[in-house]
Design a protein that fits this description.
The chain is α/β, with parallel strands linked by helices. It is about 45% helix and about 10% strand. α3 links the parallel β1 (about 45) and β2.
């Protein structure tokens, strides 16, 4: 999930070319709804800085919702300080990737949950 459609488009093309199936959205509430209704989703890429509800709050809700709490979350953020990484992990994300996204780094993170 990302609030910038251009980022979603580029990431979707890249991951689709690698054989991944994706659902995309630009709002955290929509992502939580999709997760609750599609048990096939095996991983979430979560933009941590979004309007209305940020990724930190969304990850917390995911972790507190029994039916989806097991889904791994990779935090994606432009905030690249070490304390930002730790903040994402503390919020409940299992992995952290900074923007601009290095595709190989992202794929390595995704493979940890495959």
């Amino acid at each position: 999930m990302d609030d910038d459609p251009r980022n979603i488009f580029a990431l979707k093309l890249t991951l689709k070319a690698r054989g991944f199936r994706m659902e995309t959205c630009t709002m955290a509430q929509e992502a939580i709804h999709i997760l609750k209704n599609d048990p096939q989703i095996g991983l979430v890429l979560m933009d941590m800085m979004m309007p209305e509800m940020d990724g930190y709050e969304a990850v917390k809700i995911i972790r507190e919702t029994p039916s989806i709490s097991h889904v791994p979350v990779i935090a994606v953020t432009a905030q690249a300080m070490e304390e930002d990484r730790q903040k994402c992990i503390d919020a409940g994300a299992q992995e952290y990737v900074k923007k601009p996204i290095d595709v190989e780094e992202l794929l390595t993170a995704i493979e940890k949950f495959a």
